[in-house]
Design brief:
The complex is a heterodimer of chains A (591) and B (285). The two termini of chain A are 44 Å apart. Chain A has helices at 17-30, 76-82, 114-122, 128-140, 144-154, 160-180, 202-212, 227-236, 250-262, 273-289, 316-321, 337-354, 364-368, 436-454, 482-494, 512-521, 535-544, 561-579, and strands at residues 4-12, 34-40, 49-57, 68-73, 86-95, 108-112, 198-201, 217-220, 243-246, 267-271, 293-299, 330-332, 357-363, 370-373, 420-422, 464-467, 473-476, 499-503, 506-508, 524-529, 549-552. By secondary structure, chain A is an alpha/beta fold. Chain A contains 18 helices and 21 strands. By secondary structure, chain B is α/β, with parallel strands linked by helices. Chain B contains eleven helices and eight strands. Chain B has helices spanning 6-9, 25-39, 74-84, 96-102, 107-113, 158-164, 178-190, 213-219, 232-239, 258-271, 277-282, and strands at 46-50, 65-68, 89-95, 118-123, 169-174, 195-200, 220-222, 245-252. In chain B, helix 7 (178-190) links the parallel strand 5 (169-174) and strand 6 (195-200). In chain B, helix 2 (25-39) crosses helix 7 (178-190). The longest helix of chain B is centred in the first third of the chain and has 15 residues, at 25-39. Chain B is globular. Chain B starts with 5 loop residues before the first helix and ends with a helix. Classes of the chains: A alpha/beta (591), B alpha/beta (285). At the A-B interface, strand 7, helix 7, helix 9, helix 10 and strand 15 of A face strand 2, helix 3, helix 10 and helix 11 of B. Strand 15 of chain A pairs parallel with strand 2 (65-68) of chain B. Bound molecules: thiamine diphosphate (TPP) and iron/sulfur cluster.
C-alpha cells in the first residue's frame, strides 16, 4: 500500500479525461483523502492532447507530485507523450491497440479494449470514459456504491436511460477488469481520513472566499484562466443579493469596480496578465483616490497572448509596479487552494481597512487545480471594515486628512460628506493641488499605509517556514511554487542536506522582519520561480542587497520537487567544495 | 453667473472654476446647478463623475459627491456607482475627446445597458486641456495643431451615434441657450434609463473657427413640435441634418434599466433556492 498515490489520465481532449479525473477526485474527497491535481489544456477549443494528474494521500499534500504510480492512456499519442513520467514500479493502463516501445516499457501493463467495450457492448463511443472509470474502480478498489452514487448525481438532470447507459458502462468496465486484471499487482487507494473533505479548484476557492468576505459587486471581462471566477459568481452571487456584470473590457471592469467601491460596496475583479496590464492606469487612480479594490490576477505564460492555457509566475513585476508614478498597493500570493480562499478574504480586509488596491496573485496551475479542503477552512467573516466618516455639520469634510495613515471615508449618500475623489494630486479636501508640499505629504500618506500593514495583526503568521532551522542553505519562493519547494526541502533533508525554506504570502509590503531575519541567517539563497528573469529573486536582491541563486522555468508547467532538489544538491556541493583547502582551480570559481 | 437663483447657488462648492474667460462651459455649469435646484435633490445624494479634460473639471465646482477619474473612463465609473447605490442621482460629464475618442468604447455599452444616469457630453470640437489638437468632432477642414493640413478622418456626430447605439434618451443643447439647456438636463435626469445630452459649446482658446458660437447660432433650429421622439429613425434624420443643427429632445424610449435587469436576475437566482452560504459550500462536498 502506498503512502500516497499519483496517477495520470491522458488522452485527446473530448475523450472524457477530465470527467474521469474529476469523478475520481470527488470519490476520494468523500472518502476523506487529501488530493491535489494538475491538468493541462490544449490552447485549441477542440482536440489536442490533454491530461489530468491526481495525487492522493492520507496526509496533507503540498503539490501534485512527480513520480507516477499509474498512467492511464486512452490513445497512442497519450502513451508516447506521457510514458517517460511513469515510475519504474508504476503500472500502465492503456487502450488495447496501443503499441509499447521496445525499451523502457513498464513492468505492469493492462491493455484494455476500452473502445471495443464501449462501441460493441454499450453501443456508444462516448461512454468510453465510463468504461475506463469502471476499470479504474477495480484497480483502485473504489467502493462501488460510492461510484454509482456519484454517477447518479452526475446524470440526475438527464433522463433515466442515460443514467442506465452509464451504469452499464461502469459495470462492463468493472467486470472486464475483474476478469482480466486480477492475479496481478493491484493498486490500492490509500486509506481514507476521518472526515469528508470539500473538493474545490483554486478559482472556486477565490470566488467562495470573496462571497465569505462579503463581496457585493463583481465586474470582469472573460480571460483564461480567470473566467471561471466570474462564471461561478454570476451563478451564485445574485442569490445573495450581489451583482455581477460582464463589462466591455478590463478597463471598464476596473472602472466599474472603482465607482462601486467608492460608493461603498465591497467590489472585485479577476483577470489574467493582459487584462491586468489594461487595468494598470486605473490601479494608479485607485491608489491616488484611496479607494479599496480587490483584483485577482491568475497568471499565464506571457508576454502578450503568450501561452494562454499554461502556467507561469511572470506578472510579479506588473503586479508590484504596474502603473505610472509611485503607486503603492498590496500584493498577496496564495500557495494552495485553501489559501486562495483565505487570501481573497484577507485581500478584502486589507483593501477596505487601508483604502487601497490589493492584488491577489495566483496562476493557471493554482486556478485550475482541484484540491481537497477541510470544511472548517472555508468559514470566515470579514475581519476589518472601512473606516467611515461621520461628518459633522458646518466644517467641510476633508476626505484626505493628513495624520494617521488612513483617513475616514464618507460614502456617497452620507449627509455632510460631499467631497471630491480624484486621480489628480490634491489637498486634504480633495481639491487640485500640484505644489511640492501637497505632493510630498500625500505621497507619504499613501506609502505610510504599507508600513502600517507591516505592523498589522492581519498579516502576522502569513509566512511559512519549512525544513531544518539551522541550515545554511535557504529556499525562498512564492505562490504556487511553494508546494514543490516544501516537498523538495523535506526530500533534501531526508538525504542529509540541511536546508530550510521561507514562503511569504504577502509580497507588497514584504514581511521585512521575518524575511530579513531568514536571509541574514542563511549563507545561500535559492529562489525557485516560474519566470525567465527571476523576478522575485531580483526583488530580494534589490531590497536586501543579497546574492541569490535563481531556479527559473518557463515550460508552462509547475516546478517539480526534483528540480528544486537538484539545485539544493548543487548548492550543497559547492559549499562543501569551497570549505575544503584550496588546491588549483577548483575553489572559488563558481559563485 | 450673477443671475443665478439663490437655491441654485447652494449647489456651488465654492471652488472657483479654472476655465478660460469666455469658455462655453460656464453656461453649462449654471444650467446644471439650476436644474439641480429645480429638481431639489439633496447634494449628498448627487454623484458627479467625470474623466479628464477641461469639461471633466466641472465636479470640483459643484457641491456634491464628485469623482474626477481618468481620461475616458467616466462612464464605467459612474455605472459602478449607480449599481452600488441606485438611490443616487448620477450625472456624468466629459469632453468630446474624453467620451468619443479614448472612451469611445464605453458609450455603446452604457447605452445598451440603459444605466439610469445622465451623460452630458460637452462638444467643443477640440481638445481644450491639451491645447488644441483635433477631436473626433472636429470638422474635416479644420486646421489644428495636429492637423495642420486638415483632418485624416470624418467627423463624428455624437447625438446620432447615441441614437444608433440605442440610448433611450438623446438630446442636443447649446451652452448659450441656458434655460433650454436646463430643461433638457432636467428631462434627462428625470428619464428612467440612460440619457445622453450633447451640449454644443465653444472653446474660447483653441476653437474659434469651426465650432464657434456664430456658426451654431446661424444653423440652429428647434426640434419640430410634431417630431415623434419615440421613432429612432426620425430622430436620426434630425440629428444628422446637413444644414440645420436641431436642438431639443431627439429621441426618447422607455425600456428596462440595468438596475431593473439586476433585480430581475436576483429574483430569478433566488427562485432557484439555496441562498445561504452553507448551500454554496455544500456543492463542494
Ligand atoms: C491616458 C491619457 N491620455 C492622454 C491624456 C491627455 N489628455 C488630457 S485631457 C485630453 C483631451 C481633452 O479633450 P476633451 O475630452 O475634448 O475635453 P476638453 O478639454 O475639450 O473639455 C487629453 C488628450 C490623459 N490625461 N490620459
Ligand atoms: S481651453 Fe477651451 S475648453 Fe478649456 S477652459 Fe479654455 S476655453 Fe474652455
Amino acid at each position: 500500500m502506498h503512502p500516497d498515490l499519483t496517477l495520470r489520465i491522458a488522452g485527446e481532449s473530448g475523450e472524457g479525461v477530465i470527467t474521469i479525473g474529476e469523478t475520481l477526485c470527488k470519490i476520494a474527497a468523500r472518502e476523506g483523502l487529501h488530493l491535489v491535481t494538475f491538468r493541462t489544456f490544449p490552447a485549441e477549443i477542440k482536440g489536442g492532447p490533454c491530461m489530468m494528474q491526481l495525487r492522493l494521500s492520507e496526509k496533507a499534500l503540498s503539490c501534485h507530485g512527480e513520480r507516477l504510480d499509474l498512467l492511464v492512456c486512452l490513445n497512442q499519442q497519450a502513451l508516447d507523450d506521457n510514458l517517460e513520467d511513469l515510475g519504474e514500479d508504476g503500472a500502465l493502463v492503456c487502450e488495447a491497440e496501443c503499441e509499447l516501445p521496445d525499451e523502457g516499457a513498464p513492468r505492469t501493463v493492462y491493455r484494455i479494449p476500452f473502445e471495443r467495450i464501449a462501441v460493441r457492448e454499450i453501443g456508444s463511443r462516448i461512454s468510453k470514459n465510463i468504461v475506463v472509470l469502471g476499470v479504474l474502480s477495480h484497480l483502485l478498489g473504489l467502493p462501488k456504491p460510492a461510484v454509482e452514487k456519484l454517477l447518479s448525481e452526475k446524470f440526475a438532470r438527464k433522463n433515466r436511460a442515460v443514467l442506465e447507459h452509464n451504469l452499464e458502462a461502469l459495470r462492463r468496465g468493472l467486470d472486464y477488469a475483474r476478469e482480466h486484471c486480477s492475479g496481478r499487482k493491484t493498486i490500492r487507494l490509500p486509506p481514507g481520513g476521518k472526515q469528508n473533505k470539500l473538493l474545490l479548484s483554486g478559482n472556486e476557492a477565490v470566488a467562495l472566499g470573496a462571497v465569505a468576505a462579503g463581496v457585493k459587486c463583481f465586474f470582469g471581462y472573460p480571460i483564461t484562466p480567470a473566467s471561471e471566477i466570474m462564471e461561478w459568481l454570476a451563478l451564485h452571487l445574485p442569490r445573495l443579493g450581489g451583482k455581477v456584470l460582464q463589462t466591455e473590457d478590463e478597463i471598464a471592469a476596473i472602472g466599474c469596480l472603482a465607482g462601486a467601491s467608492w460608493a461603498g460596496a465591497r467590489s472585485m475583479t479577476a483577470t489574467s496578465g493582459p487584462g491586468l496590464s489594461l487595468m494598470s492606469e486605473t490601479i494608479g487612480l485607485l491608489t491616488m483616490a484611496e479607494i479599496p479594490a480587490v483584483i485577482v490576477d491568475s497568471q499565464r505564460g506571457g508576454p502578450s497572448t503568450g501561452m494562454p492555457t499554461k502556467t507561469e509566475q511572470s506578472d510579479l513585476n506588473l503586479a508590484l509596479y504596474g502603473a505610472h508614478g509611485d503607486s503603492p498597493r498590496v500584493v498577496v500570493a496564495p500557495t494552495s487552494v485553501a489559501d486562495c480562499f483565505r487570501m481573497t478574504g484577507l485581500a478584502f480586509d486589507l483593501a477596505e481597512k487601508y483604502q487601497l488596491p490589493v492584488i491577489v496573485l495566483i496562476d493557471q496551475a493554482l486556478s485550475a487545480r482541484l484540491e481537497t479542503v477541510e470544511p472548517g477552512l472555508v468559514e470566515r467573516k470579514p475581519a476589518a471594515l472601512r473606516l467611515l466618516a461621520e461628518p459633522a455639520g458646518g466644517a467641510a469634510y476633508a476626505r484626505y486628512r493628513l495624520g494617521p495613515a488612513v483617513s475616514p471615508a464618507a460614502v456617497p449618500g452620507t449627509e455632510g460628506g460631499e467631497h471630491m475623489v480624484t486621480g489628480m494630486e490634491h489637498d486634504e479636501l480633495g481639491n487640485f493641488a500640484c505644489d511640492e508640499e501637497a505632493h510630498t505629504a500625500m505621497s507619504v500618506k499613501r506609502h505610510r499605509k504599507l508600513e502600517a500593514i507591516n505592523d498589522d495583526a492581519l498579516v502576522r503568521d502569513l509566512s511559512s517556514h519549512f525544513g531544518d532551522p539551522d541550515a545554511d542553505i535557504g529556499v525562498v519562493t512564492w505562490g504556487s511554487s511553494a508546494g514543490p519547494a516544501e516537498e523538495a526541502i523535506a526530500a533534501a533533508n531526508r538525504m542529509g542536506i540541511p536546508v530550510r525554506g521561507f514562503v511569504p504570502r504577502i509580497l507588497s509590503p514584504l514581511p521585512h522582519r521575518d524575511l530579513a531575519k531568514f536571509l541574514g541567517a542563511v549563507k545561500r539563497v535559492i529562489v525557485p520561480e516560474l519566470n525567465f528573469t527571476g523576478q522575485f529573486a531580483a526583488l530580494l536582491r534589490a531590497t536586501y542587497g543579497i546574492r541569490t541563486t535563481s531556479l527559473t522555468k518557463v515550460k508552462g508547467v509547475p516546478l517539480s520537487p526534483g528540480e528544486i532538489v537538484e539545485k539544493i544538491v548543487e548548492a550543497a556541493e559547492e559549499i562543501a567544495a569551497r570549505s575544503k583547502p584550496t588546491h588549483g582551480k577548483a575553489a572559488g570559481q563558481r559563485v | 453667473m450673477e443671475k443665478l437663483q439663490d437655491s441654485a447657488c447652494e449647489y456651488l462648492s465654492g471652488v472657483c472654476p479654472v476655465w478660460c474667460p469666455g469658455c462655453g462651459y460656464y453656461g453649462i455649469l449654471s444650467s446644471l446647478i439650476e436644474a439641480f435646484a429645480e429638481l431639489g435633490v439633496p447634494s449628498h445624494e448627487l454623484a458627479l463623475v467625470s474623466g479628464i479634460g477641461c469639461a471633466s473639471r466641472l465636479p470640483y465646482f459643484v457641491k456634491a459627491y464628485g469623482f474626477h477619474g481618468i481620461h475616458g473612463r467616466a462612464l464605467p465609473i459612474a455605472q459602478g456607482v449607480k449599481l452600488a447605490n441606485p438611490k443616487l442621482t448620477v450625472v456624468v460629464v466629459g469632453g468630446d475627446g474624453d467620451g468619443l475618442a479614448i472612451g469611445g468604447g464605453h458609450l455603446p455599452h452604457a447605452a445598451r445597458n440603459n444605466v439610469d444616469f445622465t451623460y452630458l457630453l460637452f462638444n467643443n470640437a477640440i481638445y481644450g486641456m491639451t491645447k488644441g489638437q483635433f477631436s473626433p468632432t472636429t470638422m474635416l477642414s479644420a486646421v489644428t495643431k495636429t492637423s495642420p493640413f486638415g483632418l485624416p478622418g470624418e467627423t463624428v456626430n455624437p447625438a446620432a451615434l447615441a441614437i444608433v447605439y440605442g440610448a433611450s434618451f438623446v438630446a442636443r443643447g447649446f451652452s448659450v441657450k441656458k434655460e433650454h439647456l436646463k430643461n433638457l438636463i432636467l428631462e434627462g435626469i428625470r428619464h428612467r434609463g440612460f440619457s445622453f445630452i450633447e451640449i454644443l459649446a465653444s472653446c474660447a482658446s483653441f476653437n474659434t473657427t469651426d465650432m464657434n458660437v456664430a456658426r451654431i447660432i446661424k444653423a440652429m433650429a428647434s426640434v419640430p413640435s410634431d417630431h415623434d421622439p419615440a421613432k429612432p429613425l426620425e430622430a436620426l434624420r434630425l440629428a444628422t441634418h446637413e444644414e440645420k443643427i436641431y436642438l431639443g429632445v431627439l429621441h426618447r424610449a422607455e425600456r428596462p434599466t440595468l438596475e431593473d435587469r439586476c433585480s430581475e436576475i436576483q429574483r430569478a437566482a433566488r427562485a432557484r433556492g439555496g441562498g445561504a452560504y452553507a448551500d454554496l459550500v455544500a456543492q463542494f462536498a
